[in-house]
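User: My collaborator sent over this chain with a note saying "see what the structure looks like." That's all I know about it. Can you take a look?
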Amino acid sequence: MADDVITVENLRVRYGEKVAVDGVSFTVAEGEIFGILGPNGAGKTTTVECIGGLRIPDGGTITVHGLDPRRDRRALAELVGIQLQHAELPDKLRVGEAIALFASFYRTPADPEALLAQLGLEDRRETPFAKLSGGQKQRLSIALALIGNPRIAILDELTTGLDPQARRDTWGLIEGVRERGVTIILVTHFMEEAERLCDRVALINRGRVVATDSPSGMAGRVHGELHFHFQPSAPIDAVGLERFEEVSAVHVRGSDVEVVGHGNLLGVVVGELNALGVVAQRPRIDQANLEDAFVELTREDALNTPMVAEAVAR
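Assistant: Without extra context I'll predict from the sequence alone. Here is the result:
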């Protein structure tokens, strides 16, 4: 198991009377992509700003590769690259100029030309920031976060506002960054993004960590039923399927059949169809995913439910 390179313990931040972060604790292992999820205003950005040394917390402790972000900000800047949720450059600043400027902040920066090539920006070297597309601006943000050869990259809402193709291209870039050995903290509200990229995720709600787990493990905490949709190749007795204990309901809508249940539902239904000489055409299984867990664990009364008490205890 990889060593933990980030430790956050009982982190607390207040804005006047409002408690933004209320006792957040988690660890991040070296080389993993660690996601931070939560509703708007949950405290996600405040938490990562404290980790990156950009904000001073009111309580708790943080260590990043053994450094205290409050005490060791200069040393931390050599280890951590940050792409903020809201960051702009001067409209007339050219891509190559931005890279050269940020490279000058570090003693041993990455090769600017190689980084531009890796991120597909080599032909935009002379392009002003204002003329870049949304996807190109995000690529430049990644480049600026990586120009210092960081061991840790903090990426906050990296793909917000991107079209689906640009978002998927950016995901590929992030996977490439991890392959270079960089530990990544990814703040996102896109569940598909977290499921694809993250090894583990922390779900924060109202300033508190509700649960920490792998995306699949988080989804597994939602005790939802399976929904098996198909079109039978021949008419079937839908009521006959209800005799199985794994089946809780059967719905027929025209030529479509939906069987709702749990456990080995798929095996039971397919076995019965085979016995009848019927083929399940256009089959589809719907089951709980990370989005379902997000909704269930962050709803208004969730903190009082047994599921969340169990999740926090894990």
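A starting point for your reply to your collaborator: The mean pLDDT is 88.
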